[in-house]
Amino acid sequence: MNSVERTKEVKKKLVKVFPRDIVSVRNGRGTAYGWVEIRIHLSRLVNCPEKPDHGCGWCPKWGNCPIFKEIRIKGYRQVEEAIRGIEFNTYPDDMNRDQPEYTIDID
Ligand SMILES: [Zn+2]
């Protein structure tokens, strides 16, 4: 599977779980070449009581908001579950175990 195919596959899986317009999947560049960079803009969907009618991105506690923190943890797990089984490039960690080359960013 080349990186274009892999990116497409990752995106396909993620838009089954999240609305398409908050999903971003890109190939890493430069030193991150071969990596898949996943970003889910979940804060847009969160209606934080601190700032009703705005996403948590407008929350005054942004970054430390307990509501968004919880949603972020859940989102991370949802991403990992959705992309399970896809073949990523790997790198050896310090225990010499293969780790998949992707990053997940929930913002
Ligand atoms: Zn908040």
Observed structural traits:
two-stranded antiparallel sheet, binds zinc ion, alpha+beta, 2 helices, three-stranded mixed β-sheet, about 110 residues
* Computed structural class: alpha+beta
What is the 3D shape?
A: elongated
What is bound: which ligands? Answer: zinc ion
Beta strand %: 15-25%
What are the secondary-structure elements, in order, as H or E?
Answer: HEEHEEE
Number of domains: 1
Distance from N terminus to C terminus (CA atoms, Å) equals: 28 Å
**Reading side by side through the largest sheet, how are the strands ordered?**
1-2-5
Describe the SSE topology.
Blueprint: H1 3-14, E1 23-27, E2 36-40, H2 66-82, E3 90-92, E4 98-100, E5 102-106
Parallel strand pairs: 2-5
Antiparallel strand pairs: 1-2, 3-4
Gist?
Helix content is 27%, strand content 20%.
Structure overview:
The protein is α+β, with helices and mostly antiparallel strands. It has one domain. The chain is 27% helix and 20% strand. It contains two helices and five strands; from the N terminus they run αββαβββ. The chain has a three-stranded mixed sheet, covered by helices on one side. Strands 3-4 form a two-stranded antiparallel sheet. A hairpin with an 8-residue loop joins strand 1 and strand 2. The radius of gyration is 15 Å and the shape is elongated. The two termini are 28 Å apart. The structure holds zinc ion (ZN).
